[in-house]
Every structure is written in structure tokens, then in C-alpha cells.
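Contributing: when you submit paired examples, paste them exactly as shown. First protein:
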Amino acid sequence: MQTKLPEIAVSGLLIKKNKTLAVAESCTGGLLANMLTNVPGSSKYFLLGIVAYGNQAKISLLNVPGKVIKRYGAVSRQVSGLMAQNVTKSASCDYGIGITGIAGPGGGTARKPAGTVFISVAGKGKTDTKKFYFSGSRLVVKRKTVLKALSMLKKFL
């Protein structure tokens, strides 16, 4: 028996439930939006994808307060949650995903090593945020992050 690709499974659920989605990505550089829009019929549910790689983009495009970034860091539970909530509001959709992290191999610290990622799913009046540590190359970390985001959204639905 062949298993559905995660993006196909999530797409099917969103279409079946007549729900819409927007995503705000940082360390994945648009990979989540790319995977979702590779699925035929994605225009029925996918409304907006923002790649907010730099802090200024998070502030100006996603309304993440600069003081939150300064206090907690761009790679934090707080920023990820606000990214998910605010992209949902911007797109006037049912669900939003916010992703921020350090894909590596450099850029990490002792507190936040390369591979540290925060993923948030917002919708139904709540936000679920989880912290992960993924190992592997930059591309592997990005792929693992996107697969985990799809899994979180599937559970949220």
C-alpha cells in the first residue's frame, strides 16, 4: 500500500474541511509553500506565503514587534507564534504556520545550536508552538522542519 505524501494528505484535509492556510517562513526559505503549492488544487486553500528571512521583514511584513525580537531573539517560541498568528490575520484565513530557526551549519550558539527550530500553528483561536532540534545538513534541516510543520498542521486539523 502506498502512503500519501504529507503535503497531499494535508491538502486533502484542508479541501475536505473547506479551510484556508497561510504560511510565514524564515529558515525554510519558502520550502513549505513550495511543497504545498506543488499539489494540484492548492489554490483552493493556500492563500499566502511569506519568506521573512531577516528581522526587518518579520517586523514590517508580519507585524512582529521589534522589542519581542530583541528580548527573545528571532529564533524563539514568541516570534514563531506571532508569525503564525499574524500571517493568519494578514491573509484572513483559517490557519497559519510560522517557522523560524537556524538551518546551519553555522549561526548557532550554545543556547540555540544549529538545527534549533520553532514551529507554530495558529487557528481555532489558539496557537500550538513546538521547539525542535534537527540534525543534518542545511537541506536536511529544512526538509525535516517542513515535514514536522505539515504533521503539526495535520494534527491541528
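Second protein:
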Amino acid sequence: MNFKSCFFIGHRDAPEEILPALLEAIEGHITNYGVGEFIVGNYGVFDRLAAKALVCAKSRHPEIILMLLTPYHPAERSMEVPPGFDGTFYPPGMESVPRQYTIARANRYMIDHADCLIAYAWHPASNAKNLVEYALKKGVPVMNLAAPLQE
């Protein structure tokens, strides 16, 4: 398999203890699947942990590209590029999306365009879980770090 890009989706209240699993998953995606671009959001603990793990991975693999997903138009809500990241990404066509749906729509766009997904989603009544199921239906490979919790 020759993956190129990886997106992250997870619960806002993910436990800090998943950081080692995130580090391992990212390393595996770089070395085993050829992922060269990672895109992560900026809302909640999971996104923060993924960003931390990605910056750490970039110190070992400076060739990878790290992008911060911005669901709001940059003119409406500007965002500084965090240290270690290469830039921000605003999905095309989001200008017409009602504000209350922008994060969910941006996440769905990324699943439609990413080669794989690293997730932390277990709660059945959550948008994160819905997005993981959406990715699986589309045939996007998903590594769900919360899967052991479901057994």
C-alpha cells in the first residue's frame, strides 16, 4: 500500500494516556505506509495530542508535511501556524457552509480526500464515531486507537 496523506479524528476529551499510541501509529504510517502528509484539526484534547505527536515525528522525519485544518475561512478567523507545522489547510467550497456545520463538513471533506485515518472514537453518539463509520464505508483505512476499549 502506498498512502500519501493521513487525517486525524477523535473525541475532544481523549485521555492524555493515548499519546504513546499516537506516536507509534504515526511512526508506523510513515515507515510502513509511506504517509508523507498529515492533517489535524485544532479542537479538543485528541487534536492537541495528535499535533504534539506529529511535531515529535517531524523531528525524526523532517520530510513529512504537517498541516493544520482550519474549518473557518482565514479572513473570518485567522490562525497562526503552530511551531513545527508547515501551514494551514482550508477546504475548498466551505464559504457557503453554515457556520454551525463547518467543523463537521471540513472533517468530512478530509475523509473524502485523505488516504487513511488515525482515530480515537468509541462513544456511539458522537460525530467522531460517525466519521469513523463514514470513512470505513468509503473504504478509507482506519486505525482506531480506541478499538481496544470497545472489546
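If you have annotations for the second protein, write them as plain sentences, like these:
The chain has five helices and six strands.
Residues 45-60 form the longest helix (16 residues).
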